[in-house]
Specification:
The complex is a heterodimer of chains A (230) and B (386). With 230 residues, chain A is of the alpha/beta class. In chain A, helix 4 crosses helix 5 and helix 5 packs parallel to helix 6. Chain A is 32% helix and 30% strand. Chain B has 386 residues and is α+β, with helices and mostly antiparallel strands. Chain B has two domains: 172 residues, no CATH class; 170 residues, Barwin-like endoglucanases (Beta Barrel), CATH 2.40.40. Chain B has 14 helices and 13 strands. The chains are: A alpha/beta (230), B alpha+beta (386). Bound molecules: adenosine-5'-diphosphate (ADP) and magnesium ion.
Chain lengths: 230, 386
Amino acid sequence: MTEKTLIELDHVTKRYTRGRDTIEIFDELTMGIEEGAFLAIMGPSGSGKTTLLNILGGIDSPTSGSVTVGGQRIDNMSEGALSKWRAANVGFIFQFYNLMPMLTAAQNVELPLLLTDLGRSRRAEHVKTALNVVGIADRAKHKPSELSGGQQQRVAIARAIVSDPKLMLADEPTGDLDRTTAVEILEMLQLLNKEFGKTIIMVTHDPEAARFASRTLHLDKGHFVQEAAE
Amino acid sequence: MNNLKLIWKNAARKKLRLFLTVFSIFTAFLIYGVLGGFQSSLDEGIDIASGANRLVTVHKVSFIQPLPYSYVNKVRSMDGVADVTYAVWFGGYYQNPQQILAVFAVDPESYLRLYSELVIPEDARKTFFSDRRALLVGKKMADRFGWEKGQQVPIQSNIWTNQEGSQTWEFTVAGIFEANDPKIDTSYLLFPYEYLNEGRQFGQDSVGWLVVGTESPDINTQVADAIDLEFANASTQTKTDTEKAFNQAFIEQFGDIGLIVASVTGAAFFTILLIAGNTMMLAIRERTSEIAVLKTLGFGNGKIFTQVILESVLVTLLGAVPAMALAGLFLKGASAAMAGILPAMFINTGMLVKSAGIMLLLALVTGIIPAWKAMNINVVTALGRR
Ligand SMILES: Nc1ncnc2c1ncn2[C@@H]1O[C@H](COP(=O)(O)OP(=O)(O)O)[C@@H](O)[C@H]1O
Ligand SMILES: [Mg+2]
């Protein structure tokens, strides 16, 4: 594993103002995540795990401080530039899969490729490869409603990797799955990390799930309280 | 899959809803196509049929009252007048009183001089000039009744009784005329004024109206004013207008067709504006989290906005295009069924351009607010809602 830093947070503060109240989620958070890491972030509900992931993925921005990913400052990028950056650099995986119900598995996986200038047949190739990697090629023509939760999450993972991003962000990816299926999904993430070199940051509140990661951080009241390295 | 297919999949996710929206758009455009096509055909018919330098002089009180024959020569001698002809409404019907025909008693030579757009075979023209019972039959009427040259045709008049005390007048078809532009209506019949004037029991030496050819369209107004001024102190006063204005006024006696068409189609469009706009709004609200996911994947604001607008365009076209096609077919069928009563009806290029404009405008108006909302969906809040 290289020791190159992929993500750097420098004095990141995030506050929400609701009327006169101000909720501080992070205060001057500084940290680095090395390329190729599989990092689990744990913490009680409301501790800011999702917010952190959103900031790392460029769908939310810090109140102050800087966020650098792959040498690029993303905290001050324009909305349009961030969209393009996300399309090229980040794969998102959600707890509830978030597939388009009217599209087949293959079409769902193809979505991110509509933003590239790949031709029809190249797109089909990429989709096939991604579906093969997650082992669900035989369900390519199925709609999400015809798939189990675990299968849907595989499709969602395929969608996240189809444009070959360096970074994958997963927010409680197994939160809605039974133990056996959860293990399959976690093994898949491990495979993507080890074999395909993806940097993965996974939010979870399941210690069993966190064990699949190479490192776990505990977030509480806006601070990492203890680092449990394996 | 491509972007267009994605848009289609979005539009078609609720089949019944799509059907209802498309159907309401279809209905509105069908109404527009039929009524608008009817109106524009009338307008175009008037435009084409009206000579640029032709004026029509009628009785000041009502155009059904006659003018003295002497007016013909008086007007002919006036400044700026190139030619004058005249006509009488025969009030004709064929076989039964419901089968009303447009039949005019005219002065053959001057009439054909002024209506030079009519194309008449030389032999028919000769017969028309020499035989007072000659009947010149418009192509459309010939097609409708299957009349041929040389055929005897009895036509009844609901106005004129002849010397035999009968309202049936005998004619011989002299020939069939067409017009140099297929859009000019030819669903009428012409016969020599003399036959009527010598045969009728009353109203001798009067004419229904004058048609005046001016030396140039530029002097139409002056000549019209001069004619009316000429007879201002006579016992029969006149009202002179361009042929186009006269034809328009003639049609408007049946009602302000333009206003009726505008209000009916306006109401129809306003209704679908509400229906389609509301449906679109609902659709976007239901899709909030999906749109947030698309944004997360990297679909930019512009893309999201365009997608919704295009979805609106797609749904509009889906309803409007078949509706315009059906309206065109309907008008064609109605024209065939009512040949001779109404001029040819069709959806002309102007209507097509206008309807395309309305489709686009409607799609934009119904799509723009939902598109704006979709574009401004906050990813963090939308995803956090789950
Ligand atoms: N849009 C928002 N406005 C105000 N407060 C928010 C908003 N989003 C999140 N929060 C608050 O920020 C805190 C962290 O939320 P979140 O990152 O979702 O926590 P976690 O994912 O760890 O459960 C919570 O207290 C939540 O109520
Ligand atoms: Mg969360």
